[in-house]
């Protein structure tokens, strides 16, 4: 008789308090994990969906920075987990549970401050996850490696080039994937044994036995020299004094028949965010959101079907090589290589190309948008042109080094005045 999956004895703890300042105005009103992605979802839905699809039925989300949008989303999307089925979903805002003058001061502290809530569920394992990356991964395989290796901590790792590794925390490992060093953003990163052109970068995913983790957290909390962070403090300590093991993402990434390579993205800059969304409009995108075997769960808004109207030369409602979400109306405008979220309206004679347009945007008549990210609720004035004059765009909008324009309503308002 096969043993029960280890995931049934695990709690997924999602760290979702990130500021995401490199996304500029997109995170003025929301935390990075709450930023929209892929036409329907939010970034955090990927980590949460991975946990659910892996068989984990106890989930906790720690929030901090500008959390209202995130809290509202997960309350709407993730409250189907039921205590009577031995399932749980806890939202854990920074609430000064340990000290009256201390919010979460590090990723490890964000777990320790909620010790009583976590331990009340008595999980055997804790899977610590970052809530701000796009990927599909089966955590059950990582849990199994953790047990088989007898590890104190198992760290999820990406294979990257030495040039890319300088932006990550990098694992030095032996031939058995035991971590022998952990370096933050090294200039000369250690490579994988037998693969001198590859390095192992931390994904910010950790598996612990719960008892071991909280013994370590109590010691860390009492150390005034600690920054109370997994990457800076706890993982290096275990590497030196215990057994830390690297788990290769390639061994647990989930791929459909349409996906060629393991897919993981940090969409933490406007350029990366635009590129990852636009990639979804390609004939064979690198990320398959149509894979029903590993669905990305999210809040299913009640919307009418997308609508395309008018059919005369120069005023034809159409979308080519694009994703158009529910409630959107393309009314005599043209949309190409673009991703439209819910309830976007593109009016007559407007032309939209290479655009990521968040919900509730209205694109005015005869407007032209090229290579843009448009924030939620923006009203694009009639005839406005964005993406054709770099100097004018830079004076009016947030224009990136790659030529992507981020457009918000305050920016539009300044033009009008």
Provide a concise account of the structure shown:
This protein is α/β, with parallel strands linked by helices and about 425 residues long.
Fold and architecture overview:
The mean pLDDT is 94. The protein has eleven helices and 29 strands. β28 and β29 form a beta hairpin. It is of the alpha/beta class and 417 residues long. The longest helix has 12 residues. Helix content is 24%, strand content 27%.
Number of helices: 11
Beta percentage is 25-35%
The gross shape turns out to be: elongated
Main sheet attributes: strand count, strand direction, barrel closure: 9 strands, mixed
Radius of gyration from the alpha-carbon trace, in angstroms: 23 Å
E-strand count? 29
Catalytic activity: alpha-D-glucose 1-phosphate + ATP + H(+) = ADP-alpha-D-glucose + diphosphate
Protein name: Glucose-1-phosphate adenylyltransferase
GO molecular function, one term: glucose-1-phosphate adenylyltransferase activity
EC number: 2.7.7.27
């Amino acid at each position: 008789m096969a043993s029960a999956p280890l995931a049934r004895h695990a709690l997924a703890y999602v760290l979702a308090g990130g500021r995401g300042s490199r996304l500029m105005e997109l995170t003025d009103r929301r935390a990075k994990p709450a930023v929209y992605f892929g036409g329907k979802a939010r970034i955090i839905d990927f980590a949460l969906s991975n946990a659910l699809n892996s068989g984990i039925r106890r989930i906790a989300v720690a929030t901090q920075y500008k959390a209202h949008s995130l809290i509202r989303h997960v309350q709407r999307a993730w409250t189907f987990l039921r205590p009577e089925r031995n399932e749980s979903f806890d939202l854990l805002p920074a609430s000064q549970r340990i000290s009256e003058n201390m919010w979460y001061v590090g990723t490890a502290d964000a777990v320790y401050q909620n010790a009583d809530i976590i331990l009340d569920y008595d999980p055997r394992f804790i899977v610590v996850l970052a809530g701000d990356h796009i990927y599909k991964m089966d955590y059950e395989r990582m849990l199994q490696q953790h047990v088989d290796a007898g590890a104190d901590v198992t760290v999820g790792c990406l294979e990257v080039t030495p040039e890319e590794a300088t932006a990550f925390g990098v694992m030095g490992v032996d031939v058995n994937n035991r971590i022998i060093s952990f370096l933050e953003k090294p200039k000369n990163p250690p490579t994988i044994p037998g693969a001198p052109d590859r390095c192992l970068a931390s994904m910010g995913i950790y598996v612990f036995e719960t008892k071991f983790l909280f013994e370590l957290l109590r010691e860390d909390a009492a150390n005034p020299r600690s920054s109370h962070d997994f990457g800076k403090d706890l993982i290096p300590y275990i590497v030196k004094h215990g057994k830390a093991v690297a788990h290769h993402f390639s061994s647990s990434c989930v791929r459909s028949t349409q996906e060629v390579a393991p897919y993981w993205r940090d969409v933490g800059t406007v350029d990366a965010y635009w590129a990852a969304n636009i990639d979804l409009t390609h004939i064979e995108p690198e990320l398959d959101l149509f894979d029903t075997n590993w669905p990305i769960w999210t809040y299913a808004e009640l919307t009418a079907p997308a609508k395309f109207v008018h059919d005369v030369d120069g005023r034809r409602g159409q979308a080519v090589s694009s994703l158009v979400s529910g409630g959107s109306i393309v009314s005599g405008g043209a949309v190409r290589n673009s991703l439209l979220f819910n309830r976007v309206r593109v009016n007559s004679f407007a032309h939209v190309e290479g655009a990521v347009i968040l919900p509730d945007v209205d694109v005015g008549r005869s407007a032209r948008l090229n290579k843009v990210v448009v924030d939620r609720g923006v009203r694009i004035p009639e005839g406005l042109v964005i993406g054709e004059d770099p100097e004018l765009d830079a004076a009016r909008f947030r224009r990136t080094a790659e030529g992507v324009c981020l457009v918000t309503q305050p920016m539009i308002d300044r033009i009008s005045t």
